[in-house]
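Q: what does this look like with manganese (II) ion bound?
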Amino acid sequence: MKIHEYQAKEIFKQYGINVPNSILCEKLEDIEKCVQSIGTPCVIKAQVYSGARGKSGGVKIAQNKENALKYASEILSMVLVSPQAGMKKVNKILIENAVDIQKELYMSFTFDRTNEAVTFIISEQGGMDIEETAVKNPEKIFKQVIYDTFYPMETIEKLGLSSDISEKTAKAAEALYKLVIEKDALLAEINPLVITKQNEIMALDAKLNFDDNALFRHEDILLMKDEKEENPLELQAQKLGLNYIKLDGTIGCMVNGAGLAMATMDIIKLAGKEAANFLDVGGGASSEKIENAFKLLISDKNLEAVFINIFGGILRCDFLAEGVKNAIANLKIECPVIVRMEGTNKEAGADILNNSGLKFTVVKDLNEAIEVIRKL
Ligand code: GDP
Ligand code: MN
């Protein structure tokens, strides 16, 4: 789960990480009051689930009140377009005390699946071009895999900062690591983490992603969820208890089992098409669940056809066929539906579909599925 920068900064404060003074503003009519309370110079920042806001016009520094009001109303009404997140309507801005920057560092913690450990990453070339640094000067980015107790100093020393600044940076790193562990974050990133002209360390940006599987023990984090920022189809799927991820292709797929769903997406690609989604309906899907899954698939406006690939183990094929038949009849689905079933009662399942009076293409195996999808 993602949260906004302003929310992440609230959590930073709880952990003793310095952040600038700021105020959140959600309405055009509140802008003047908010700017007044922060004063100038100030920074106006779009609050959307996207990085690279600076390069997309979503972060602006205002030296005086006039500019602050102008930027604030512009950013609060804008649709931010970034290479990372596509188009995002801005609904909230953060108005922040501008900080005099001496140097921009980069700091993050990510989960390294290969090493099965949290990894600490730091660079003295932080800021908006960190991606470029990673490509052109990878030697400027230092990584430390944390297996046991975390001693940030051994890595921070490599940056060649003064000992006073190194110590303050290490304190921020320890605080952020504590947050990562206690709150089950999968990613914590501060870019830039700045050294101010007054030689303080301060987080000017804040990004936190949390492990969805651990949210049951973090009610405070769950409350921060901003449904407006989530993909509407994915949000609906979460509410229905379906494992669904929206993709860019045109072939909707409904599969039981995550591995089979991945393989199915490969099959679609082999047929020269792209999957419209990932959808795992799970082992014991009820017919209600199947109908809900179908509703979700057909609300995708890019849809060209639906491919159902089911291995009937616990879920019997005849039971599935009933669910699919009802869903298609109830929802008046008109696009082609290709069904491959294997396993328990597959003949009975095929009979139900073939005798339903509805248009199905029941294929005998994946090779035939590829041929049918290719010809769409
Ligand atoms: P991002 O582009 O979405 O990562 O947004 P950031 O919050 O990182 O802001 C982009 C850039 O704006 C930063 O890298 C800073 O260079 C600059 N910036 C943000 N806040 C301040 C500030 O208080 N003072 C100054 N001088 N620059 C700032
Ligand atoms: Mn940033």
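Residues 21-98 form a domain with the Dna Ligase; domain 1 fold (CATH 3.30.1490.20). The radius of gyration is 25 Å.
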